[in-house]
Specification:
172 residues; mainly alpha; 5 helices
Length: 172
């Protein structure tokens, strides 16, 4: 169980690193006239993501969830793959990447990295969805996996609509 708690801790540290990058990119965007959208959905998104990490630990600990190797091993691999995809997205977007919806008018959309494939419009959200399912299942926290996946799907509908509207407004 303790190795799993260490894994969740590492994911929490990774999320902290994301916030450092996001804060820097937020300032960069605002300095260039960036427009912030979707302020209403951002706090619930933060609560959901912090809740994921807390629920992973609590369900495994309080629910005495066992580690099932045939499931846990592949799920840990998916968690790691999600981190690779996430940081590929962050790197490709550079200062455009943020945890909030911020659009700098006049800048062209990024078409490099995973964003060069038009059929995969939101690869960062694929990473979030995979991580949100795989991290809890790495140690049998199936309730957390189901609840997060459902809530995240609903939130992503709102988020993607917000981003699309913000990008359309900026390019109009």
């Amino acid at each position: 169980m303790y190795w799993y708690f260490a894994l969740v801790g590492l994911v929490a540290l990774e999320r902290g690193a994301e916030l450092v990058v996001a804060r820097r990119n937020f300032a960069w965007s605002l300095a260039r006239g960036g427009v912030v959208s979707g302020r209403r959905h951002y706090p619930p998104m933060v609560v959901l993501h912090v809740g994921l990490l807390a629920a992973c630990v609590l369900e495994v600990w309080l629910g005495d969830r066992p580690f099932v190797p045939w499931l846990g091993g592949p799920m840990v691999a998916l968690v790691l793959a999600a981190q690779v995809l996430r940081w590929w997205c962050i790197t490709a977007l550079g200062p455009h990447w943020n945890t909030q919806v911020v659009v700098v008018p006049g800048l062209s959309p990024v078409r490099s990295g995973p964003y060069r494939w038009s059929r995969l419009r939101h690869p960062n959200y694929v990473a979030v969805a995979v991580e949100g399912l795989a991290l809890p299942l790495a140690h049998g926290a199936w309730v957390t996996a189901l609840v997060f996946t459902g809530l995240n799907a609903a939130l992503m509908v709102v988020r993607i609509r917000c981003e699309s509207a913000a990008l359309s407004a900026a390019t109009a």
